[in-house]
Sequence to fold (311 residues):
Amino acid sequence: MAGEPATVLTSPDVRALAARWAEYLQHDRRRSPHTVRAYVATAHRLIDFLGEHLGGAVARDRLLELKASDLRAFLARRRAEGLGAASAARELSGVRAFLKYAGEQAGSHSQLPRTRAPKRPRTLPRPAAPEDAMGLAQDAAEHASAPWIGARDLAILLLLYGAGLRVAEALSLTCRMLPIGATLRVTGKRSKTRIVPIVPAVKEAVEDYARQCPYPVAGDAPLFVGARGGPLNADLVRRSVAAARKRLGLPDSLTPHALRHSFATHLLARGVDLRALQELLGHASLSSTQIYTAVDAARLLDVYRHAHPRA
Fold:
């Protein structure tokens, strides 16, 4: 109430706040156990750092008064500990989410400190590293406007990266594909049909979305729907990816379609022959698939140039 002194939380109370945040993420936001563990670990790392950085116990009021310089110092410490740029960007995302929750619990709507995520060095376009592809999908899901929309975006992006689907192919799926099995029949360009294998992570993501979707999931209705229940627009998928890419400091070349390219290149690197890859991608001719040999050769040449003393 107005006129009453503000409650000051010492470090144990701030840790209790982090524990309540974990419950909020799990039960209210329905985040995955992995996400909850990662975010809450970030909160505790921040609390530990601030105790040292500020020279004393961290009260909630002080937590809400952090400046951009404090967050930059925290990120600098994490980078010095060996954290990569993409991981540091996710760490910053977790810090922002924790500070936002702390502010909401205190009834404060003050603006969070503005700190840019670490920039990754500009490089030639290349397939996404597996951790970047998965991090992109998870970040897009975590920042969705509702838990079921986050589950939807995660399922779509994993279909692109884990099964090599085009965005249009994923959005054309109907509810008749459920329950999803070990393979999926996909209709691509020129009405060409192919069978693609479905790995457990993709299967789990699609099933989780189907459970959370507030609209009927049956018959010939589109599997992936928008916030009002209508067919999902591909532009919304691209915007979600662009926002996640910006938060993580990933290159602009990492588009939804680049996830499909990454799927193909990673399979080729693991020894999949071109004919099998052609079938998995739904290419009409082998020449369309052969581009991936050039992509792989470019990656090897880049490694050689950075590693060979005479390069």
